[in-house]
Predict the structure.
Amino acid sequence: MKKWSSYIAVIILSIILVGCGSGNKSDNASNVKTDVPTSEGSAYDSTHRSTNTTKTIDNTQNKAFNFSEFKLDVDYGANHSFEVNFENRNNGADVSIEDERKNQKMEGNNAYTQLEHYFKKLTIDASTPDEEVKKQIINVFNIDNSYKTIDLEVKYSDGMEKKYRFTH
């Protein structure tokens, strides 16, 4: 009898887990502009490229910002941090902002609306010197001088992925 109750418990638990996993994530933003590069394709969405036999023209100057993924983690010490996560995919973007110092957390469309304002101010790309990246991140995100470290991971629209670490 104990074996049967164990089997039934496992089956019920499996059904519950499968049912919980099928829902939409709440941090999936659907209001991302169409001119934002996605993580899945090549350097830029193929609808914005024209190809002939001699060269490919990449119209990256026509996009909203220069990256498809952006992960920022600012550590202020004492278990306080500011985190931004943005990954644009073909089916929407995973977007979140968490500011432990202000006890605020945003996800999805609300987070994207706020981040879009900041992202449009960034002019960084894969060839931007690290010190300029640091300067822009500090200025655009209003990071105060009490930070301990800034960790940044960016996947640029040309496919280049870069990691940065700045200490104070």
Summary: The two ends are 64 Å apart (CA to CA). Helices lie at 2-21, 108-119, 130-140. The first helix runs from residue 2 to 21.
